[in-house]
Amino acid sequence: MEINLKETKLIAGQGQLFHAEIPGNNEILEPLGKFSKPIVVHVRLESKDQQIKAFGTISTEVILNCSRCLEFCIYNIKSDFAASLIDISLQDEQDLWQDEVVFIKGGIVDFSSLIYEIILTQIPMTPLCNINCKGLCPICGIDLNHRSCQCQQDNIDPRWEKLKHLT
Ligand SMILES: [Zn+2]
Ligand SMILES: [Zn+2]
After folding, report:
1. Full-model pTM
2. How far is the CA of 144 from the centre of ligand 2 (A)?
């Protein structure tokens, strides 16, 4: 998502709103999952004391695989963000900026990296289709949410497996 600041007349103390709907780049989510809805971004730019700040929201929906049963699960992502827009020529002074920074290159600000960074941090490490998901049987691989098997009953801790053969 790019905003051309040269075409944007920011008036000090007055916010300006931008909206964009961008198709999610599935390559970025691989192998975690894929986008099932476009990424909706709302950004308000504010110019204050010679500095431009961006305040925005990101929302989208992704399809992930449940970490226990591997079924698809839909996950909503919604996040707020705030960033300072800094000209790329000041890149070396970035220690000065406390906030998240998005660089302005030739008058253009590209929010894409920030947007994907935020989305990735919102994706759970171990997604679950349901918090009570029973997962797959570790022995026969059956989905224990839909079917049951006999494995659990004679399940033996693999550490004792060898002992069983000794007797
Ligand atoms: Zn599951
Ligand atoms: Zn089983």
Report:
1. 0.80
2. 8
